[in-house]
Specification:
It is built from 13 helices and 20 strands. It is α/β, with parallel strands linked by helices and 445 residues long.
Length: 445
């Protein structure tokens, strides 16, 4: 039987941006209760047939959320701990799981341990909590010591995961989040640079908290199986497929996508799949032809993986990062504007969400490539007594596709429009509009 996360459809929220919170958070700022606005999004997320939310960062920080000041307080720009408890409770009542950002590679400079080193120097009991602390020279920020920082950003000093006190502190934080807020999992920021033994110990600790507590890591490059295995993490971000989904359409090259799935076959069904997020340009800004939004999302929901929608992209909004800012990727959107933003793409994504949730073939079911050209692609996913057959067309013009059916069935039902297509001589013949896709269900006999 599949776990909740193996069959989940995620909705990804960057809460500081969505709610229009101030960019800076001075320590004496008042608490503003913006979770009321986030709660109003729950019915919309349900309507999209999403069964899980990844929300973050949301713990007390100084600016963008990844410079943590206090791991046990919700960011005062969003509300307080009771506000988040209420949010999680209402999500659970709506059948939606909640996963939060775990920023454990680094802290902000206002975190208590770093402040203690600033105040007490080499006498600080926390001097070994950070990597590379050296009292022989100062930092670019004017400190009397130097330290390792994340990618040279000295506002983000790197924690030392080899220190047992640091590890125990982080595991205590995770237990606190689970006990206090009843969260269902953690997305590990910067998992690509975290120590593997640290993540393995975290996996064991998490299993003691909740049997189905999910750990997903942010990994951009590398062999994903190094992270995704029974000892380390349950999942990582599938950046390789993310790139293929838009460039495979822009270049009219479905071979890129199909090759990615073949290469990742060992772990593909466990990976967190997405087409945009809080660090990447919106899909509607990346595609040369926006008509292909439909075929991209068809693949996102039916290829192996755990699909995720980034808030706002269900309406096809645009956004590009600049060298100076990610702000355009993290806009303030009021759910009250949903009626004006709603369009055909929104309904299409909601249908795909329902299809994904309802069909066990899409929850780790075996993948089989059926046909492949640069502009047309079809494949099957095998379920219990049925297959889900997906066919997509990245050409500007309609395409007639003749697809083999890998199961002994007499007809295929189009799950998008309800039409029935006969199976003849072990094949189906289907016409796919430019930039569109079909998702067919064929029951075995």
């Amino acid at each position: 039987m599949s776990t909740w996360y193996e069959k989940a459809v995620f909705y990804h929220i960057y809460p500081l941006g969505l709610t229009g919170a101030p960019k800076q958070n001075p320590a004496d700022s008042p608490t503003v209760h913006r979770f009321d606005e986030l709660i109003r999004w729950i019915p919309h997320i349900q309507a999209l047939n999403c069964s899980a939310i990844y929300i973050g960062p949301l713990f007390e920080s100084s600016s963008h959320g990844y410079d943590t000041r206090d791991y046990k307080l919700v960011d005062r720009r969003l509300g307080d701990n009771n506000d988040f408890k209420k949010f999680v409770r209402l999500c659970h009542e709506a059948g939606i799981r909640v996963v939060v950002d775990g920023v454990f590679n680094h802290t902000g400079r206002e975190f208590f341990a770093f402040r203690d080193i600033q105040e007490n120097g080499s006498q600080s009991p926390y001097k070994d909590w950070y990597k590379g602390v050296n009292f022989g020279w100062g930092s670019p920020c004017g400190d009397s010591f130097s330290y390792e920082s994340w990618q040279g950003h000295y506002g983000l000093p790197c924690l030392n995961p080899w220190n047992p006190q640091v590890r125990e502190y982080i595991f205590d934080v995770i237990r606190f989040w689970a006990d206090e807020f009843d969260i269902d999992g953690i997305r590990l920021d910067c998992a690509n640079v975290l120590d593997f033994n640290f993540m393995k110990e975290m996996r064991w600790q998490a299993s003691q908290i909740k049997e189905d507590f999910w750990l997903m890591g942010e990994v951009i490059h590398g062999e994903y199986a190094r992270w995704v295995n029974p000892e380390t993490l349950h999942s990582v971000t599938n950046y390789e497929l993310h790139k293929g989904l838009y460039s495979g359409h822009n270049d009219h090259n479905y071979f890129e996508i199909a090759h990615t799935i073949r290469r990742l076959s060992q772990v593909a069904d466990r990976l967190y799949t997405f087409v945009d997020n809080h660090d990447e340009d919106r899909l509607a800004s990346k595609l040369h032809d926006k008509a292909q939004l439909y075929s991209v999302y068809t693949l996102l929901y039916t290829l192996p993986g755990i699909p995720s929608i980034y808030y706002g992209s269900e309406w096809g909004i645009e956004g590009r990062r600049t060298r100076e800012s990610d702000e355009a990727l993290r806009p303030c959107i009021a759910i009250a504007d949903e009626a004006a933003l709603h369009n055909d793409l929104t309904d299409y994504i909601a249908k795909l969400g329902r299809i994904h949730l309802d069909n066990d073939a899409l929850h780790g079911g075996r993948y089989q490539e059926l046909t492949l050209t640069t502009r047309q692609y079809s494949f099957a996913r095998f379920g219990n007594g049925h297959v889900i057959l997906t066919a997509v067309n990245n050409d500007e013009n309609p395409a007639e596709m003749y697809v083999p059916v890998p199961i002994n069935g007499s007809e295929a039902v189009d799950l998008i429009n309800g039409n029935t297509i006969p199976v003849a001589d072990g094949h189906i013949r289907i016409s796919i509009a430019g930039g569109r896709g079909a998702v067919l269900k064929i029951k075995g006999v």
